[in-house]
Design brief:
This protein is α+β, with helices and mostly antiparallel strands. The chain contains twelve helices and 30 strands.
């Protein structure tokens, strides 16, 4: 049996604001010691997957590659990069076409969302291999979760009776209201829909042909214009750049062979795909759907109470870290992210979610946690940055965080990974002051390159081209002070860039 783990890594995770942002969504959030995306990839590896295929937005490629590179045993990985989200049916159709073309119609696809928490990997593997056996018999397999409460945030699947063995799925229903969810539980015939599936490429493609031919036709058209690129496009450029800069022997980043391929799609053709879920397109219409009941603990981490449940509670039911002082507080989750040490104190509160970040504070009752999405919608209407950019913004070369901003100036902390370089650029409306506080840099100003070590300073005049490169073994940390009438991130003119952004 050839098995491909297909990881669907999309969605903004708006109910986990302010930790989850559009530019740094839920799959990259660490929970249980590692990013949720990493856990999904490792889950597929544990099942014996021959390869990993990740379907994600093109803007998340560098973040996703970082997660894969940090694995102890990185798998052979292929990326299908979406110019924009078009829901799960087009994503799975494209993945099935790619798997079939590469490995034939009998290859088994284990479809795993990138934002689930499953602590018991061994139990998952047992269930997954059971699902794969049914997939090889021509079934469309879905993992069902035994409901523990009348949850309104999940879809439901009706069966003849909840039991421990696989059985035919009779009906898929969308997220119900509270009364309907309670009715479902009382019947003993409904599972939660986990959104995890297993089937062969040939079986799912036949299902698209039978039940949603328009989705399949659109996906085939998109695949015809796809462009495939193998391995890392930047490895050679990075090495060449370090040689040009005269980096000291032993200070270059190791140029490890990247065992992956990247498939990009034409944005116009991609946008013409129907925006439809796999449930609507296939599962609600097909007659060969088998439900495998999950024998493992599961959470889709869809809202803050689920995050709280993933932590160990104290004697009062609270979940928080040591920098929280709680007096007469029960069943409350507190999460703090700050550029400097910060104490959060609670007095006489119960059943709250408190999430404090440098640019946003959320205080919500656990019973209303699903409504956090309404806050994000309101902030988007106001065009507020806190829905898009996280407080620490990740870039292919490293990160930046705004420490202070007032009229006329902004202070940033910039980190650059070993061997990486910012683009050669200039600004129309601001000058910059750079101080290296950790590591060794090459600072280019105009045509001159300056080797710069800890404590050394450079001034970048308005409209002067400049670039920053880390030539050391360790992370480079720099404090940048911007001065000018306009300090927006769009005041950047890139002249050259190893990441293709110029």
């Amino acid at each position: 049996m050839k098995l491909i783990s297909v990881v669907l890594s999309g969605g903004a995770g708006t109910r986990l604001w302010p930790a989850s942002r559009q530019a740094y969504p839920k799959p990259f959030i660490s929970l249980g010691g590692s990013p949720l995306l990493q856990q999904a990839v490792e889950r597929g590896q544990a099942c014996g997957a021959d390869e990993t295929m990740i379907v994600t937005n093109q803007d998340y490629l560098f973040l996703t590659r970082e997660v894969i590179a940090n694995l102890e045993d990185p798998p052979k990985t292929s990326y299908l990069l979406e110019p924009k989200g078009r829901n799960t049916a087009p994503a799975i159709a494209l993945a099935a076409l790619a798997c079939s073309q590469e490995h034939g119609p009998d290859v088994v696809m284990m479809v795993l969302p990138a934002d689930h928490l499953i602590p018991d990997s061994e139990a998952f593997v047992t269930n997954a291999l059971e699902a794969a056996r049914h997939a090889l018999q021509g079934h469309l397999v879905v993992f069902g979760i035994s409901p523990t409460a009348p949850e309104t945030g999940f879809g439901y699947i009706e069966v003849a009776k909840i039991e421990r063995t696989p059985q035919k799925a009779l009906r898929f229903v969308e997220k119900p209201d509270a009364a309907t969810a309670s009715q479902y539980l009382s019947t003993g015939r409904y599972y939660w829909n986990s959104g995890m599936f297993c089937f062969t490429a040939g079986t799912i493609l036949q299902a698209f042909k039978d039940h949603s031919p328009e989705v399949l036709a659109a996906a085939e058209h998109v695949m015809q214009g796809a462009q495939v690129q193998n391995s890392s496009p930047n490895a050679g450029k990075k090495a060449e750049r370090n040689v040009e800069l005269g980096a000291e022997s032993g200070t270059n980043t190791p140029q490890t062979k990247v065992n992956d391929s990247v498939t990009r799609f034409d944005s116009k053709a991609f946008a013409h795909q129907p925006d439809i879920s796999i449930d609507y397109a296939i599962m609600e219409r097909a007659s060969n759907v088998t439900l495998v009941p999950a024998k493992f603990g599961w959470s889709d981490v869809g809202a803050w109470p689920a995050v709280a449940l993933a932590h160990t509670a104290d004697a009062s039911g609270n979940t928080f870290e040591a920098n929280v002082v709680a007096v007469e507080t029960t069943r409350t989750h507190v999460q703090v992210s700050s550029h400097t040490p910060k104490v959060v104190a609670t007095v006489g509160v119960h059943d709250l979610i408190i999430v404090d970040t440098p640019d946003a504070l959320l205080v919500a009752h656990k019973d209303h946690a699903q409504k956090v999405k309404a806050i994000v919608d309101e902030l988007k209407e106001r065009k507020h940055d806190s829905t898009h950019l996280p407080t620490t913004v990740h870039r292919p070369w490293g990160t930046y965080a705004t420490l202070k901003e007032e009229s006329g100036y902004k202070v940033k902390r910039i980190t650059v990974k070993p061997g990486e370089s910012l683009s050669l650029q200039y600004h129309h409306q601001r000058a910059e002051h750079w101080v290296v506080v950790q590591g060794i840099a090459i600072v280019q100003i105009g045509e001159v390159e300056h080797r710069t070590e800890v404590g050394q300073y450079h001034y970048i005049p308005l409209k002067e081209k400049h670039r920053l490169t880390n030539i050391g073994k360790n992370e480079l940390v720099l404090i940048e002070v911007q001065c000018g009438a306009y300090l927006g991130e769009d005041d950047i003119v890139r002249l050259a860039d190893m990441y293709g952004r110029a």
